[in-house]
Write a structure and sequence with these properties.
The structure is a single chain. It is built from 13 helices and 15 strands. By secondary structure, it is α/β, with parallel strands linked by helices. It folds into two domains: 196 residues, Rossmann fold, CATH 3.40.50; 105 residues, Response regulator (Rossmann fold, 3-Layer(aba) Sandwich). The strands form three sheets. The chain has a seven-stranded mixed sheet with strand order 7-6-8-9-10-14-15, sandwiched between helices. A five-stranded parallel sheet has the order 2-1-3-4-5, sandwiched between helices. The longest helix has 29 residues. 47% of the residues are buried.
Length: 377
């Protein structure tokens, strides 16, 4: 009796352990890969961040429909940083606490810079679709950082070359919004103008973000007799400066960056946006993958996507491809795969150099014509 009971107990315990193991295996198989999207999703600059959330969501939906990767589905975790460095640190900390595997973000360079150390400590790879400050990669401090957009020095050089060689200007006013992104771009623009020997900087000025009245700086531009303005920053300040300039009948060329190459700038500036130049990611509208991604957005959201949508789409694809190629969600393995393997994206076939910059992406010049940004050939 004792023996039979022991045997029954043995089999019961063995079966219980089997069930527990089976449950653990099933739970592990059901575990998701967590992909975070961090950026500005509210406020005046939300038009820059929301397209990235939608891009990541569309890619994940497609991948999950095919079974996910590594036998696991992808889970989307979205956090808002309001484009503010002090909030971005909290955003990064929260995503780390949620055991995020990889992150698409952040959007603004200042917010990105503030958060990267936190992700580095947490062994999390980050790919930004829009943070263009050159030092984010050139400093070598953040081996966990990658981006699917060219840095500001390339953007500033294009703006300066265009102003001098195409528009034939001799006197340039360089303005910025005092932020990491805008000021960084402006410093490169100033440097490249001075190196050119073909033009000179007649005004270098920072403007206060969110100010109601920019008449003082507009007056300084007028007194400087600048032929063109190169502006580093975002659309709220750019639209205000342009509106006040045009209302004073100032026809000075206005050349800006991908922070202004957004339909929101046109909506805010209205008729005064006409003729404004801005650099932005290269036109890939003929790329079949870009066409498909844009159509997917239109079908899902009923509208064309906004700024950095394709860059975020490519960033999400690159992260998932790297995990698939690495056969792992390990931090070091993902980083190595990103630098080793090509991935086909709406931006073209890309991979990343040793600094984390995408090979094969760049900028084009655009101009507002009849209320639409059109690439300048």
């Amino acid at each position: 009796m004792k023996t039979r009971f022991s045997n029954k107990l043995f089999f019961a315990l063995t079966f219980g352990v089997f069930l527990a193991c089976a449950f653990s295996i099933n739970a592990l198989a059901a575990d998701t890969i967590k992909l975070g999207v961090a950026g500005v999703h509210t406020g005046d600059l939300a038009s820059y961040g929301i397209p990235s959330v939608r891009a990541a969501g569309l890619v994940i939906k497609e991948v999950n429909a095919k079974g996910g990767i590594l036998g696991r589905k992808i889970e989307l975790l979205v956090e808002d940083d309001a484009c503010k460095p002090e909030i971005a640190t909290n955003t990064a900390t929260k995503l780390i606490s949620m055991h995020v595997n990889v992150v698409v973000g952040h959007i603004c360079s200042g917010a990105t810079k503030a958060s990267l150390g936190i992700y580095k400590t947490g062994n999390v790879i980050v790919i930004s679709p829009s943070a263009t400050n050159p030092e984010l990669t050139k400093s070598g401090r953040y081996p966990n950082f990658f981006r699917t957009i060219a840095p500001d020095d390339a953007q500033a050089r294009l703006e300066v070359n265009f102003a001098i060689n195409v528009l034939k200007v001799k006197k340039i006013a360089v303005l910025h919004d005092k932020g990491d992104y805008g000021k960084g771009l402006a410093e490169y623009a100033k440097k490249f103008v001075e190196q050119s020997k073909k033009a000179r900087v007649v005004l270098y000025e920072g403007v206060s973000p969110g100010a109601v009245d920019y008449s003082a700086v507009v007056q300084k531009i007028k007194r400087s007799q600048a032929d063109a303005i190169i502006f580093g920053g975002y659309h709220p300040e750019a639209s205000s400066v342009v509106i006040q300039m045009r209302k004073k009948n100032m026809n000075t060329y206005f050349i800006s960056d991908d922070g202004v190459k957004d339909d929101t700038f046109i909506k805010v500036a209205g008729k005064y946006a006409e003729g404004v130049y801005a650099t932005g990611p290269k036109d890939v509208s003929k790329n079949p993958l870009a066409i498909a991604a844009i159509e997917a957005h239109k079908k899902t959201y009923g509208s064309a996507p906004g700024a950095f949508f394709l860059n975020a789409y490519a960033a999400t694809q690159a992260l998932l491809n790297a995990m698939q190629k690495a056969g792992s969600t390990n931090y070091m393995a993902i980083g190595k795969a990103l630098r080793t393997y090509d991935v086909n994206t709406p931006l073209g076939k890309i991979r990343f150099d040793k600094l984390g910059d995408a090979i094969g992406v760049g900028f084009s010049m655009y101009q507002v014509r009849r209320g639409v940004y059109t690439e300048v050939k």
